[in-house]
Task: inverse folding
């Protein structure tokens, strides 16, 4: 109830401010409206976006036919976004709220007293040259696919690699820096120290802290690496090579700062979890390629009680690879393909290897701000039930 009241209050505030502004609305996709203080001491762009999704799935029968059809419609994402600067252009901020049930489900089950709809609430201070200090709740500098906004994805949704291995959002601080090795060769460094338990945690740090380091190399110059598809039809080849190392000390969740809590007879089971990402993005004249590798291990992945007996929980350790490519035609239709392979440690997790093949078709009407996307995926599970999935999604981003 409190969440609904807060959201309603924010919406009323937004629209009352909008009504009071005697200014023309921005172009489509550039926000609902932009505010500038009378003394130019602050700015605020207010935007909203929504995704409507329909999914149909079938299991593959023993005779090769399709069985157990299921279908559902959903409001996959609904967001309200605020960003701008406060006091000085060197001090920027971002707030993003999740308004759909599926968006809000990412909060921890231990955060019932906190507003579950907060995705991002972060300030970013350019304090010296090319250095930036971030503080608040936002995405960690993890795998590329996760850092790409869900509104800028090349296909309907992210891959199985992301759902199994990503480190997502957390609360803490970050230091970011960039420099040039030459006129074309750019380097970006990102360091983060966070709570280690994901977003919207209010009960304090249960385990240790999470430390994340990422290095990005742009040998042919900077470009829009964190946008799916080559919508700009880059006229010279562009490449980003990157790697992330994440150490979550005394982690208490099955997927580092995500997944379920590992509870034992004396409280929470703790173990150190390491996650490594290596990824690349290439774009050239409408063609794009993204590759990702992920690896997770743990000091002791099997959760135990004080007497050494297993609790039934375990860290989801293993490896994953995701390869994705697409070509954007002059008509702004794009055909894309994706191959994903997940190999969790079967002896520890009991999970069979999975391989998924996805073929996507997208129509960009106003870039990523107004688009229709569809894909067809075939999931092969060793020793399990294979699955066929079709999806159709519409994105509207004001």
Result:
């Amino acid at each position: 109830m409190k969440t609904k009241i807060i959201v309603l209050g924010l919406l009323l505030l937004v629209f009352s401010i909008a009504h009071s502004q005697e200014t023309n609305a921005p172009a489509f996709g550039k926000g609902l409206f932009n505010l500038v203080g009378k003394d130019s001491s602050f700015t605020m762009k207010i935007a909203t976006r929504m995704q409507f999704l329909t999914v149909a799935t079938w299991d593959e029968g023993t005779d090769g036919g399709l069985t157990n059809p299921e279908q559902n419609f959903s409001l996959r994402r609904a967001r309200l976004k605020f960003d701008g600067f406060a006091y000085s252009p060197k001090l920027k901020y971002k707030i993003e709220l999740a308004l759909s049930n599926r968006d809000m489900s990412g909060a921890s089950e231990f955060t019932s007293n906190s507003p579950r709809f907060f995705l991002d609430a972060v300030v970013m201070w350019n304090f010296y040259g090319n250095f930036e200090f971030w503080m608040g709740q936002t995405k960690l500098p993890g795998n590329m696919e996760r850092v790409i906004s869900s509104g800028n994805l090349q296909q309907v949704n992210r891959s199985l690699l992301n759902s199994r291995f990503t480190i997502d959002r957390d609360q803490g601080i970050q230091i970011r820096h960039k420099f040039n090795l030459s006129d074309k060769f750019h380097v970006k460094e990102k360091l983060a120290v966070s709570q280690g338990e994901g977003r919207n945690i209010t009960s304090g740090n249960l385990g240790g802290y999470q430390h994340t380091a990422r290095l990005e190399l742009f040998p042919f110059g900077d470009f829009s690496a964190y946008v799916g598809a080559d919508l700009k039809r880059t006229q010279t080849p562009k490449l980003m090579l990157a790697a992330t190392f994440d150490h979550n000390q005394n982690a208490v969740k099955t997927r580092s700062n995500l997944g379920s809590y590992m509870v034992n007879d004396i409280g929470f089971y703790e173990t150190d979890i390491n996650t490594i990402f290596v990824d690349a993005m290439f774009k050239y004249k409408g063609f794009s390629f993204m590759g990702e590798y992920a690896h997770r291990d743990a000091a002791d992945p099997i959760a135990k009680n004080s007497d050494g007996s297993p609790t039934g929980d375990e860290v989801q350790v293993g490896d994953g690879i995701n390869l994705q490519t697409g070509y954007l035609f002059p008509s702004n239709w794009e055909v894309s393909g994706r191959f994903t392979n997940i190999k969790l440690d079967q002896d520890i997790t009991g999970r069979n290897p999975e391989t998924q093949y996805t073929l996507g078709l997208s129509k960009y009407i106003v870039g990523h701000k107004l688009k229709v996307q569809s894909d067809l995926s075939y999931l092969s599970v060793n020793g399990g039930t294979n699955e066929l999935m079709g999806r159709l999604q519409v994105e509207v981003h004001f």
